[in-house]
User: Fold this.
Amino acid sequence: PLKVEYAGYNVTQNILIKDFGAADYCNLIINDVNANYATFYLGNPLAVSGDLTVTKGALNLSGYNLTVNGTAGKFIIQNGARLKLKGNETLTVNTGYPQLDAGSTVEYAGYNVTEEITIKDFGATDYYHLIINDLSELGQFILGDNLAVNGDLTVTDGVFQKTGSYNLSVAGSVTIGSAGTIVSSGAGTFTVAGNWSKSGAFTHNNGTVTFTGPQTATISGNTTFYNFICATAGKMLKFTAGSTQTISGAWTLSGTAANPVFIVSTTSGTRWKVDPQNTRAITYTDVKDSENTNA
Assistant:
């Protein structure tokens, strides 16, 4: 079958995908293998009757609808590649697609107007890396179902809201940029396996953040949590030296006799601070270079 491949010019630039009519392409490949990845963007709705594969570089739908629904048509974003959405585009694809491979990224950019945009539900594991990057900071990106991010969640610009009783799980790290905001909710779960980095705003709304997974997690920036839980035996939480974490609700740390939870500073000999303002349930926890300001 006929394939069309876009390769770029080894410079960082935006390249318009050509419009060839109602059925634009049979098989389409975005494969910018150069060091300076280009963004290939739509200027009209795009229809692919076969497969659409983004191997390297970025595909920006730019607010236009995408159809990849041939009999066996596949839509794949591979490791290192990126899919950019404004947010309200319609994706007409076959069951099981898009396939977002490990290392792939989906970025939401918004429409430069004040509105709510529902994060798309792509299945049991919705995304690998997910970025909210609304430079206008006018959009509010909300959940319409449980959301599973198998890599990192990054809110660079704009508001990401964990709405209602939907669950949010992040297998990697959470980063809130200086112009970003995460608004949590009092219902549903919010689990993080990796690091927590806050430069912007976090609104807890009496919700719970639970740190899971065996990997060491670094918590940087000053955050006010409501309920803070780590009950993973052997997990190490490193808090940035000199930072202060405020816990308005319950503070729960629970390991085992053989594998405690480790609470340490990022700089040995320099304390981090915690202000627990309510109940505390701390068992089998190994603490070093930490100061409780509300003992």
